[in-house]
């Protein structure tokens, strides 16, 4: 079948279905992050009103990221059967309701259940990568996936800045603090609803049209390329898959953990206002504007001269520098140095995200989706494990960051153990498409 996948990215065009999907995917992913972590910068108010303990806040953090592990597997399965257009629209519209309704929480249990349900929105990454993979050719698909993922992740930073301002706006209108945080969460919910409708109306599953229409013409049509059969046992036995899962847990896991805890951390440690703490927390997420793509681009550049093992060196170096940065951050007691060190390690967190998925497609070209799925789940599992550190009553937040820093250093050493044999590398280097479903 003749396809019309884009071979370039024209950022200022919406004329083609490829570029419509490009912009709609990152904007949808951005708003999903806004809904997913919208409550995070307002947790100070929630904690005081619902009288939450440190352990309960930790459980809420874990709930927000744990359900995503299972949701990603299900959403990836459904994307191939109903198409990314319908899947994303449904996820956006259905996900909007728990975001808006979390304001009905009146105790720890009800809040925890709403936070757990909202975590399903995190599966939007699957649809984002699936849709761009269907729209862009191998020579540009890696960049397309990195940019849409990175710009979407910006939502995790912007929400830290915007949600306290929305909260303050409702307070300024005369509402109480209790009413204001509840009303503030309606805003991202409405945005998700609107985006869901727009996504359904203005995107197509492929450059050629929607899946349902294409299946009418060809009953055997599928959005996935047919690949040689590879058993899950073969994938599970490849140590590189699990090392990459650890790597993604050490970078993306860190990212969504910081999105959850940063505003609360700076508010309590340095006695800042909600708005000031949100602004500082936002600087962490704003690094996604360029840093994730930078990691992928650096890996491509080194890979072109040093081969696949060169990509491994980039990944290991990024994670190593990330770990060092986290350890420095964990020892900062002065606000300005704490902020500087956070931004420093944030750069390497985002670069590590991009560098990880610059290696993933080359592990097994006949099972890219399966490998990417395991690695992607590793990111959320990492966040879950870190959540247990932050809920511990015997550890301060600085202690937790210090432990995480040492763990990241250990994972950096693991990353350097990934190897590609010369014969495999020669074949794999020809396979440049990043067809991830993570």
Fold topology:
Layout: H1 17-36, H2 43-50, H3 54-82, H4 84-101, H5 108-118, H6 124-135, H7 141-172, H8 177-184, H9 186-202, H10 211-217, H11 232-237, H12 239-270, H13 274-286, H14 291-306, H15 308-330, H16 335-359, H17 368-391, H18 397-415, H19 422-428
Helix pairs in contact: 1-4, 1-6, 1-7, 1-9, 3-4, 3-5, 3-6, 3-17, 4-5, 4-6, 4-9, 6-7, 7-8, 7-13, 7-14, 12-13, 12-16, 12-17, 12-18, 13-16, 14-15, 14-16, 15-16, 15-18
Describe this structure in words.
By secondary structure, this protein is an all-alpha fold. The chain has one domain (17-219, 230-428): Growth Hormone, Chain: A, CATH 1.20.1250. Helix content is 75%, strand content 0%. The chain has 19 helices and no strands. The chain has helices at residues 17-36, 43-50, 54-82, 84-101, 108-118, 124-135, 141-172, 177-184, 186-202, 211-217, 232-237, 239-270, 274-286, 291-306, 308-330, 335-359, 368-391, 397-415, 422-428. Helix 3 runs parallel beside helix 6. It is globular, with a radius of gyration of 21 Å. The two termini are 26 Å apart. Residues 428-438 have low confidence and may be disordered.
What features would you highlight for this structure?
single chain; about 450 residues; mainly alpha; Growth Hormone, Chain: A; about 75% helix; MFS_trans_sf; transmembrane; NO3_transporter_NarK/NarU-like
């Amino acid at each position: 079948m003749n396809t019309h996948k884009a071979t370039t990215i024209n950022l200022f065009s919406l004329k083609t279905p490829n570029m419509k999907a490009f912009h709609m995917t990152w904007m949808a992913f951005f708003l999903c992050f806004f809904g997913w972590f919208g409550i995070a910068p307002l947790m100070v108010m929630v904690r005081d009103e619902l009288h939450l303990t440190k352990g309960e806040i930790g459980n809420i953090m874990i709930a927000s990221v744990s359900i995503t592990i299972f949701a990603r597997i299900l959403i990836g399965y459904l994307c191939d059967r109903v198409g990314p257009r319908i899947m994303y629209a449904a996820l956006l519209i259905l996900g909007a309701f728990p975001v808006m309704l979390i304001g009905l929480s009146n105790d720890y249990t009800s809040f925890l259940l709403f936070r757990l349900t909202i975590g399903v929105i995190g599966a939007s990454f699957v649809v984002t990568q699936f849709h761009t993979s269907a729209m862009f050719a191998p020579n540009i698909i890696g960049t397309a996936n990195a940019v849409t993922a990175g710009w979407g992740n910006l939502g995790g930073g912007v929400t830290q800045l915007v949600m306290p301002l929305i909260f303050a706006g409702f307070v300024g209108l005369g509402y109480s603090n209790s009413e204001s945080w509840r009303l503030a969460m309606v805003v991202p919910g409405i945005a998700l609803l609107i985006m869901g409708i727009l996504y359904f109306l203005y995107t197509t599953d492929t450059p050629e049209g929607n899946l349902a229409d294409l299946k009418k013409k060809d009953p055997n049509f599928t959005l996935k390329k047919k690949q040689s059969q590879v058993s899950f046992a073969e994938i599970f036995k490849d140590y590189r898959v699990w090392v990459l899962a650890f790597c993604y847990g050490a970078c993306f896991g860190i990212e969504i953990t910081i999105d959850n805890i940063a505003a609360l951390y700076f508010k309590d440690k340095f006695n800042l206002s909600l708005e000031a703490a949100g602004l500082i927390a936002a600087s962490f997420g704003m690094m996604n504007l360029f840093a994730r793509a930078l990691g992928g681009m650096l890996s491509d550049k080194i890979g072109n001269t040093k081969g696949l093992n060169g990509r491994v060196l980039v990944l290991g170096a990024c994670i190593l520098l990330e770990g060092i940065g986290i350890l420095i951050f964990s020892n900062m007691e002065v606000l300005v140095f704490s902020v500087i060190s956070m931004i420093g390690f944030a750069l390497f967190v985002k670069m590590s995200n991009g560098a990880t998925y610059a290696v993933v497609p080359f592990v097994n070209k006949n099972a890219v989706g399966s490998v990417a799925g395991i690695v992607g789940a590793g990111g959320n599992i990492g966040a879950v494990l870190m959540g247990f550190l932050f809920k511990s009553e015997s550890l301060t937040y600085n202690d937790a960051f210090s432990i995480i820093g040492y763990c990241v250093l250990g994972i950096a050493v693991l990353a350097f153990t990934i190897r590609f044999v010369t014969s495999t590398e020669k074949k794999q280097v020809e396979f440049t498409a990043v067809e991830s479903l993570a």
